[in-house]
Specification:
By secondary structure, the chain is an alpha+beta fold. 23% of the residues lie in helices and 24% in strands. The structure holds coenzyme A (COA). The site of coenzyme A has 17 residues, from strand 4, helix 1 and helix 2.
Length: 107
């Protein structure tokens, strides 16, 4: 069982008002904007305090956001470079949730 601050045991909270997925202490977060009448989640920024980096915490935040999007039939725009350059190449199965030109006709 992972017990580290970046491990899978870290609880991630959805902060609907501020459009964030965040740790309970709010120090690490994934920020998004809703577009296309709320059907598209544009992930604009991911932040983890320097003392907790490299432990997978940003990945954990990303999984929470992608799970939420998938469960609510939203598609994702990966504006944040961590998502596009690190998370998606390492977790290519999540590319199925991305917003694509093909979906434009349905939103
Ligand atoms: N863009 C893309 N990938 C990045 C990155 C960046 N700016 N900074 C770090 N990474 C990658 C590294 O390749 C690292 O790989 P490694 O583990 O092989 O060294 C990987 O992220 C680490 O993954 P993970 O442990 O899940 O991420 P993290 O919890 O350390 O958090 C950031 C990663 C980017 C959120 C964190 O470094 C941060 O807050 N940086 C400052 C803000 C920032 O640049 N945000 C991203 C752009 S919006």
């Amino acid at each position: 069982m992972a017990t580290g601050s970046g491990g899978a045991a870290t609880k991630i909270v959805w902060n609907e008002r501020q459009k964030r997925f965040e740790t309970e202490d709010k120090k690490a977060y994934l920020q998004y904007e809703l577009r296309n009448s709320g059907k598209v989640m544009d992930i604009t920024h991911t932040f983890v305090p320097s003392s907790k980096r490299g432990l997978g915490l940003a990945s954990h935040l990303s999984v929470a956001a992608f799970n939420y999007a998938q469960s609510n039939s939203l598609s994702i725009i990966p504006t944040c470079s961590y998502i596009s350059e690190t998370f998606l190449p390492r977790n290519p199965a999540w590319k199925s949730v991305l917003f694509s030109e093909d979906l434009k006709s349905s939103i």
